[in-house]
Design goal:
Order of helices and strands: HHEEHEEEEH
Structural class: alpha+beta
Distance between the termini: 46 Å
Number of strands: 6
Radius of gyration: 14 Å
Length: 132
């Protein structure tokens, strides 16, 4: 059985993020998309527009010296434009280590991601890791 197109799109996005392939991410994300990052740290908030989202992804890489890794745990779809990508997130920064699970809820219209709503299993751990 073939993978659902929305699952394939999410998988392609996770793989591009892992490679640092911002050109592919630009192809997958709508120009007016929004990525919602939970928490109360400098990299949390609502990133509106493709450029702001890509900039935030680059800042994640810079802040972790390229150590951030996403291990895909699974993708669930509803067949109506929603997909959930579940992953394990690891990174190192300023002598701290992050090892957490989370997910991103994707809204997909056509063949583009229009909304990304991120969730963390331990939001306090995430806030501590990303704090300046």
């Amino acid at each position: 059985m073939a993978e659902h197109p929305h699952a394939a799109l999410v998988r392609k996005g996770f793989e591009a993020f892992t490679r640092g392939d911002m050109d592919t991410l630009r192809e997958l994300i709508a120009k007016d998309a929004t990525h919602h990052v939970p928490g109360s740290h400098p990299l949390s908030g609502d990133f509106k527009g493709q450029d702001a989202i890509i900039d935030m992804y680059q800042r994640l890489g810079e802040a972790t010296g390229g150590s951030m890794r996403l291990e895909m745990l699974g993708i669930a779809v509803d067949g109506r434009g929603h997909a959930v990508g579940m992953c394990r997130v690891t990174a190192e920064r300023k002598g701290r280590r992050l090892d957490d699970t989370g997910c991103i809820v994707f809204r997909i219209v056509g063949d583009k991601v229009t909304d990304l709503d991120e969730c963390a299993e331990d939001i306090d751990k995430s806030n501590e890791f990303w704090a300046d």
